[in-house]
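Re: weekly structure request thread

Next one in the queue (714 aa):
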Amino acid sequence: GGWSSAGEEASAMGSNKGVEKVVIKAAPSQARQVCVGDEVSVHYVGRVHGGHVFDSSRAREKEFNFVLGAGGVIKGWERGLPMMKVGETARLVIDPELGYGKKGMPPKIPPDATLEFEIEVLNSCKPIEKEVVEESESNVVAKEEDYVRINLVVKDLEGNVRDSYFQDNTLELYMKHHVAKMETNGTWRAGALLKKLVEQMVLNEKASFKVYEPIMDKHGNKPFWGDGAVELEIKLAVIGRDEDVNGDGGVVKHKMSEGQGYEKGTDGANLAFHFRIMNKLIPGGRVREKTSEGELHQHQHANKRNDCLSYDKWDQLVISDDGDIIDSVPPQAQRALEDAEAAKKSRENDSAVYFSTWESGKPASIIAGFGETCEGLEDALMSMKQGEHSVFTIREDYGFAAHDGQPPCEGLPGDCALIFEIQLISIGKGLEHWNLSYEEKQREGLRKRMRGNEFFKQEKYRRALKLYDPLVSKTGYFMKMPQRPSQAAKAQREAAEIAGHKIHNVANAVAHAQNAPDTEDEKALKLELQLPSLLNIAACKFKLGDMRGVIDACDQALDLQPRCEKAFYRRAQAHAAKADFDLARNDLQQLLQISPDNAEAKREMAKLQKMEDEARRKAKKAFGGIFKKGLSEEGEEEQRSEGGDASSSPAASSSSQRVLEPKIVEQRDFEVEPNPTRAQVKSIKKFQIPLPDVAPKVRIAGMYGGDDGDDGDE
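Done, posted below.
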């Protein structure tokens, strides 16, 4: 909020020996008073009185936490904060002696400065005691942009369990917004306490926290376990962030549970997995996991039988617009809720689930990297670790509608994104690219290329590129491990050390790691697999508008086959599309030298000439005469200043129309070696270029494809 008006300030002001408080936003009713000894969380903006901002937690997007009374803040805060309540926002005006005093804090805070702080109290409570129950070897902590999934048990201080629903189920907390989601259509806004506790934990750690008083958030909401001191036993199961798997929004990942180790699916690995396809998240799909498939099955059958959701105490947790919690729902309201839910379900599909392998108990499996399933599902699986459970939103162009194989079921919509819930059960051994035999390279490489060709013919260029990549990349099928130093080199090194010579002075003491040369069979196999793949990669990238990629692929193809006509042709097309006409012409000329009767090359050369003429015409229309006009006007002005009339003689008239040459105003020459072995400066010249007195008018329409009759904007 902004500053209060004068009348509001007068009614909301308070003071405490050098600290003046002005309420900007009042605290909720029954909010807790801040006390000395509390752990306090605030947002603040600090200003020099009537001047500039010198510090702000809001600019850092991270609240400030401290223990009040422990000396971690200035004296003005120690006196001013006990006048505030949780949820309140106020301005504290602090005298210099309670701030930074006579020394100040240069350069931001001058000496004897009166300070203003706009402070919002987010939380204040008695110190919370933590005890680690199960240690973790991880060092991963939750950040502001993350969400976490926790298991939670609420006990009293004597150890008696008060609530254990989230012991087997999972509660999801969004760190930045302090929001804990509990049902599909409901949120619990009192998540500030859980965030405070999770920030003290690492992934997979289990800890117990003793909380001695109920902690309300800034809206006045209390935790769902009610009043009184409690012990919270928390297991931090997941730290995640919605991940864009391919970088284009086609496959977005939301992690439900962590996997094992670090290994992910690789090319050629057999992946076994359970998955279901939904048009929306089932109740609790991202928030409240069911403990087993049996529980989910029973839940779905109850919904079909009653044509309504099976409400439990979490469904009955209602938050009013004012932030108050209603703990129970009256019977008549309960029936109204059930009727409304039944009406809603009748307007939607009978079931949100199109297909599920969990129903049959038989997992699905694919060989990764060969296009056996839809692109989005394959990309999703290869981003997962063994045992991981995640939910993916897969766009329609990555789904089964864009796949050439048989979909898992009938009736899958092809015009919208779908939800895939996946649990990766096992990861088989993939192809070790560095250790493939000649026969394996030939067999698997040909299989990969033929599958890529199928996608290429179907104009699915993005998918085709993924199939071709292992055939041409440095870490692909033709990757070789560096050779180790030979026994002779090792013996030579040992002899040098015994003799006392420095290693770097002994020639060939250590053989440099180099790849073994290709055999004739391997060279032939590269021509068979890599060359056509590179040419198709160039064609795919041209269709996708990646001209730099076209040029790189053609360069690699020409390294394999220096007289490859298609490589010259496609590289020329890419250069022409980038308006590099000289490079394009050079490629076409080399192509015509190889094949003088190539009709396509001749047509491309004629097309190139037209493109170049058009570009020159547009450039001339856009910039022609700009400097000529300005320099001519300057020449006329110089002649007038010398007493002549620019229009009195033909010579003066012609002189006024020519472009003035730049003048050399300074020159330095240097002596250089006759046959230099390095770059040297021969001379330095400084020029003076005449400029027009007024900015010329520039017509830009032609440069951006305007019609001939369009004069454009001046």
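The radius of gyration is 37 Å. Residues 599-623 form the longest helix (25 residues).
Next request, please.
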